[in-house]
Design a protein that fits this description.
The termini are close together. The protein has a single domain, classed as Alpha-Beta Plaits (2-Layer Sandwich). Strand 2 and strand 3 form a beta hairpin. Helix 1 crosses helix 2 and helix 1 runs antiparallel to helix 3. The chain has three helices and four strands. It is of the alpha+beta class. Strands 2-3-1-4 form a four-stranded antiparallel sheet.
Length: 104
């Protein structure tokens, strides 16, 4: 099992607007291709104005197949340019579960 953690730093004052756009136009398309996310979060302490979302996959191969389906969807391709004015920085981490992880 792998967990993908994606962190987006959003321009100051625009987090709520970005999340509203995503919920309205991106969430269903994202879920259709990737399945249900582990969760979506915003930061309250530390680095502010960040949105963090996590996705679970059985393997790297499953992730590749699902991400390819996402980027083959014209609705997703139409949505992506709408997010660019909000995003200052994007980070992505792939986390591997240990043998004793409850998420295994």
């Amino acid at each position: 099992m792998i967990l993908e953690e994606r962190t987006y730093t959003i321009r100051t004052g625009l987090v709520a607007e970005y999340l509203a756009l995503y919920e309205r136009e991106g969430y269903d398309v994202h879920r259709k291709a990737l399945g249900d996310p582990v969760g979506w979060f915003t930061t309250e302490t530390g680095t502010l104005n960040q949105v963090v979302h996590m996705w679970r996959y059985a393997s790297h191969a499953e992730r590749e197949v699902k991400r390819a389906a996402l980027y083959a969807d014209p609705n997703w391709l139409a949505f992506i340019p709408k997010t660019r004015p909000y995003i200052e920085r994007m980070e992505n981490r792939i986390l591997l579960a240990t043998s004793f992880s409850p998420m295994r």
